[in-house]
Write a structure and sequence with these properties.
The complex is a heterodimer.
Chain A: E1 3-7, E2 10-14, E3 19-26, E4 32-38, E5 44-49, E6 56-58, E7 64-68, E8 73-78, E9 87-96, E10 99-102, E11 106-111
Parallel strand pairs in A: 2-11
Antiparallel strand pairs in A: 1-3, 3-8, 4-5, 4-9, 6-7, 7-8, 9-10, 9-11
Chain B: E1 5-7, E2 10-13, E3 19-24, E4 31-37, E5 44-50, E6 53-57, E7 64-68, E8 74-78, E9 87-94, E10 103-104, E11 108-112
Parallel strand pairs in B: 2-11
Antiparallel strand pairs in B: 1-3, 3-8, 4-5, 4-9, 5-6, 7-8, 9-10, 9-11
The chains are: A mainly beta, B mainly beta.
């Protein structure tokens, strides 16, 4: 069975500061990993997806994620936070077409 | 290019009633999946449809059923509603490939009283 653990249900940073959202996964097969963002009253939007062989994956809005197989981690980072980044972020591991297991999410607050 | 559309956006039902939610996938996608998102939690996989058949199912009772039509659109039906069924129901579409990311609609907020 696959699972995802997101460390820290709430993260608060100042505008311009580094954003680091943590995700650890458990998968018995090579993982299909994704990060999604959810704004209030909306569905989830894909930020980035892991591509086999890559260690650093670039996504939209300046986000990127580093895949570390030895640590089974796929942490999301952004060098400089913007007020518009405030949202909930979900890490997910795919186990088949259309089927993903999601973490419980991390709410990012950006302080001016 | 229309994305995933869901209807209705909000719904209020009484315990024991039945509800039908609808979803139109993103143009070009052939796979539709349904997820339940309770408040403060991540989406939980209900089931997925491909070629008008249910292919995989999550840990949800038979009260939850669905359908996919020839035009790839889909319905989610929930019978004998319980208070615990109150949640945001998300439809997602994708290609029938393991690494195909999900494209989500804005969801249907179901409240059971």
């Amino acid at each position: 069975a696959q699972s995802v653990t997101q460390l820290g249900s709430h993260v608060s940073v100042s505008e311009g500061a580094l954003v680091l959202l943590r995700c650890n996964y458990s998968s018995s097969v090579p993982p299909y990993l994704f990060w999604y963002v959810q704004y209030p009253n909306q569905g989830l939007q894909l930020l980035l997806k892991y591509t086999t062989g890559a260690t650093l994956v670039k996504g939209i809005n300046g986000f990127e994620a580093e895949f570390k197989k030895s640590e089974t981690s796929f942490h999301l980072t952004k060098p400089s936070a913007h007020m518009s980044d405030a949202a909930e972020y979900f890490c997910a591991v795919g186990s088949g077409a259309g089927k993903s297991t999601f973490g419980d999410g991390t709410t990012l607050t950006v302080k001016p | 290019d229309a994305g995933v559309t869901q209807s209705p956006t909000h719904l209020i039902k009484t315990r024991g009633q039945q509800v039908t939610l609808r979803c139109s996938p993103k143009s070009g996608h052939d796979t539709v999946s349904w997820y339940q998102q309770a408040l403060g939690q991540g989406p939980q996989f209900i089931f997925q449809y491909y070629e008008e058949e249910e292919r995989q199912r999550g840990n949800f009772p038979d009260r939850f059923s669905g359908h996919q039509f020839p035009n790839y659109s889909s319905e989610l039906n929930v019978n004998a509603l319980l208070l615990g069924d109150s949640a945001l129901y998300l439809c997602a579409s994708s290609f029938w490939q393991k690494n195909s990311p999900l494209h989500f609609g804005n969801g249907t907020r179901l409240t059971v009283t």
